[in-house]
Write a sequence for this structure.
């Protein structure tokens, strides 16, 4: 099973049906679409999946369905995070790793731990996980930024941690991690718009939101950057770039679900406290997609 997650990953949305339940038929269409589009791996139950609003049974059903639908065609990363370290570790110890390649685990949110608290949290999580661990730093959602010193300490001292999804928005911070990380530690962008700048600095790829809606051109851009360089990939990004701010203008995954609904993949529905895209945003996205 792949443990080097360079390239183009996609954080899958969770489609909902008219009654508000998980739309597994649409999820199957989405999985097949991104795999055929050339995406290197998929992330199940990430932020983009609206995981906080899925109950325990739904999370299990979604993960099992994605395993079955992917059927070994690409690796699967499963999102598992929380701000109760002991509870998260218990969930990891109970995880069935069959068909999964890694765990993506977000920094604890709301508690606002110190850097030492972050280190000890990930030390415990990595020890409990039956799979390789990818860190996820997104201070805009968690309320605390995991500093490069802490990320690098974890990378050097904690076995079983293989990389980080960096969504701090701070390119200098990301470059520092790339420059000082031990061999084999993968640095991935958590922001579509930061993909090429990070790869130009030596980063390894991205876990994308946009790739739900445009898997083939997005994967082509990342793969071109890998094989021919960022300069060659830049025109491909310029074709995609106008869509990027629209996808996040009213929150994630509101924008990308609007795009997917326009494409006929799934409904635009999201769960409260999120709300579906405004008509103005839908019109703007529709214009770009055309």
């Amino acid at each position: 099973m792949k443990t080097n997650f360079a390239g183009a990953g996609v954080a899958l949305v969770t489609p909902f049906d008219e009654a508000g339940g998980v739309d597994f038929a649409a999820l199957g269409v989405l999985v097949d679409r991104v795999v055929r589009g050339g995406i290197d791996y998929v992330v199940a139950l990430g932020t983009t999946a609206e995981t906080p609003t899925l109950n325990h049974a739904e999370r299990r059903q979604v993960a099992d369905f994605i395993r079955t639908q992917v059927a070994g065609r690409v690796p699967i990363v499963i999102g598992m995070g929380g701000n109760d370290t002991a509870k998260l570790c218990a969930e990891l110890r109970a995880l069935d790793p069959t068909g999964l390649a890694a765990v993506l685990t977000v920094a604890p949110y709301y508690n606002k731990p110190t850097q030492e608290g972050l280190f000890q949290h990930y030390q415990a999580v990595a020890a409990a996980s039956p799979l390789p661990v990818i860190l996820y730093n997104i201070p805009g959602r968690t309320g605390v930024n995991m500093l490069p010193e802490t990320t690098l300490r974890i990378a050097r001292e904690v076995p079983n941690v293989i990389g980080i999804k960096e969504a701090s928005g701070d390119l200098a911070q990301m470059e520092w991690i790339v420059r000082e990380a031990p061999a084999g530690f993968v640095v991935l962008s958590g922001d579509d718009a930061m993909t090429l700048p990070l790869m130009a600095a030596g980063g390894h790829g991205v876990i994308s939101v946009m790739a739900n809606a445009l898997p083939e051109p997005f994967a082509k851009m990342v793969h071109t950057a890998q094989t021919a360089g960022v300069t060659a990939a830049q025109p491909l990004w310029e074709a995609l770039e106008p869509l990027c701010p629209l996808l996040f203008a009213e929150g994630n995954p509101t924008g990308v679900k609007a795009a997917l609904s326009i494409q006929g993949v799934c409904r635009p529905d999201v769960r409260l406290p999120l709300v579906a895209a405004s008509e103005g945003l839908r019109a703007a996205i529709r214009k770009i997609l055309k």
